[in-house]
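Hi D.,

Good news: the full-assembly prediction came through. Inputs first.
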Amino acid sequence: MKKTEYETVQASLDAVEAKQDMVVAEIRGGWGIRQRLNQMGIHVGDVIQIRRCCSMGGPILVRIHGTEIALGRGMARRIQVIPAGGEA
Amino acid sequence: MTAERGKAGPFRIVLVGQPNCGKSTLFNEVAGYKSITSNFAGATVSFTSGKVRILNRVVEVIDLPGVYSLTSLDPSSRETQRYLLDMTADVIVNVVDASILERSLELTLQLLDLEIPLVVCLNMMDEAKRKGIEIDIQALSRKLGVPVVAAVASRGRGIREVFGAALASGRQKRTGRHLSGSRDVETVISDLAARLRARKDPAVPFSSHLLATKLLERDPFFEKRVLSAFPDFEKTMRASQEALARSHGRSSDMVIAAERHALSMSLFESVSKVTRPRPDWRDRLDDVLMHNFWGYVSLLAILFSFYVAVFRAGSAVEKPLLEWFASIGKNVYGALPLDSLQWHAVKGVVDGIGGGVAIVLPYLLPFLLGLSVMEDAGYLPRVAFLMDSFMHRIGLHGTAVIPAVLGYGCNVPAVMAVRTLNSPRDRFIASLVATLVPCSARMTVVFGIVGWAIGGTAACAIYLLNLVVIAASGAVLSRLLPEATPGMMLEIPAYQIPRLKIVLSKTWLRMKEFIVIAWPLLIAGSIVMTVSDHFRLTPWFNLFTKPVTWLLGLPDAVGVTLMFGVLRKELSMLMLQQALGTADLAAVLTRSQMLVFTVFVVFYVPCVATVGVLIKQIRSRKTALIVLYTFFLALVLGLLTRVFAFLMWH
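Then the structure:
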């Protein structure tokens, strides 16, 4: 994985503002977390759109592969993303 | 290689699909109200099955819980996987939401690996079209090597074709093609598969390719199963996992997952054309219903009107229904000698049935109907989304709000709904929350005694106190049982217009659960009550409950009411009137006593029907904990209320 060149712009999903397209760069977590995210269609390299950030530490809503998925903050924190578009 | 089949009986069609793919719609369309729900052996996960006649043949159709993949992550996917591996299915119908084909294909690929005859049902073709996805069905069928049938189950389209294809495939024992990805990964898989095949052990009867993939995926269920059959295999297995990890620079499960993902993406791209989606009113709807502010306003409005509708409907029907039933009942036991044992026993049965009628028809039925509508429309996941941050404060995810909301109708369906939660810890906390929620039976006590004699404000105060206690209990419990799961992950499906047939059969299925589990307990409780009445046991019960009544400052005669309130909560008020010999409670009880009694009844011990389902959901030890906790909670709160009332009114 050549993630070093993106490192400066990489952010966790819960820190990104709504209505943006991002690319999943890394999933931080053990076997269970990876499997859970993978089976919902969230993989490294996928384009993910942030639809809605719930206030008060609530979940965020993302769109990926044509479905909408609500992710709790704890889950979102484990997903590292980089902006989509450009050469990425 | 198809393994030995360990089954006899009818031809078996098993429906498998991801959540919200319309699998249950398809199932209900053929099996409908004739279906039954059963639990997997030794698990709280349940599935539905029904015997139906298709093309002049009686077949068994089984609707397994929706799963995203065949991994042992949560109870439902574990049980689904185990069920499929038992090889009792003649054919699997993989129901796929065509509008999200790219993700759904990952499950299809895993099902192909099972080497059981497979038919893919491309459901929701209308939705896919709206999203601008055009799928070449023939091409997909060619690539997968199995029949692919287009359907719109919600409109009854394509259903006959799906089951026709399933029957044909099952008879021909036609399994699909195994799709392979990049060569280096495939080499490691087939190498490990060959080593597994060399062992040839009946303890591990399924496809070696599937097994090898699952071992490389580091699925604990398969690792355990293989290692218990051949303990010396561990070294080989770990070596393969490490080899794959080394060549790809990440752990072997990530390699397999990425491989499968890439495979389904390329499959999707080769069989479909994507154009611009047509805009839809539903895109707009979420701008309001999931809005940071308007979402909550509409949630409150929707829930409030739902309750008003249910209780209006309930109370309008309940009284005439009860009167009608009482007149029938009198005819039944009226013929027996008054006060004889038979008279009491028969009266108990009649009262028990009547109690069920009084809860089921007026309240439970509209409640479950409304719930099914909200569920099928796709609103419940949105409620979970909105409530997540609030529910986190009491140690649960947003999903757990559903059982809690259900509890206001009746704790029995509420506890049943707890099984949708993933971890045992969440199920336990949610069960406690659900039993603390005052059901409609307890509502009659709150409004019938406190609301009537003291005032609406006091009745509302009890509800408020209840909310505070629930929040506090949840918060304390979640501190004691630290969270293991990292948080909510919930698909928010597109809105659907619910179909009457599906809503009705879903409601009927849930009603049946109440009738089978809760109603017999109600009747049994009722018999115990009337028979002990026959033997004049009341004074003994009052003596037994003396410590509680004395502590709470209630008359001795109330004791029997409290005791039997456990059996039939909706009778608490009636029994109180009987025990005290008057309908005018204000004449025999002080305001403070009425308040204390009501608070105690609201919180103490769930009714016997609820205890029944609790045991089924969370086992007897945890149920006992809940019963004890609620009892002491009620005692403490009753005492506090007594002190509070004393300070306020003296």
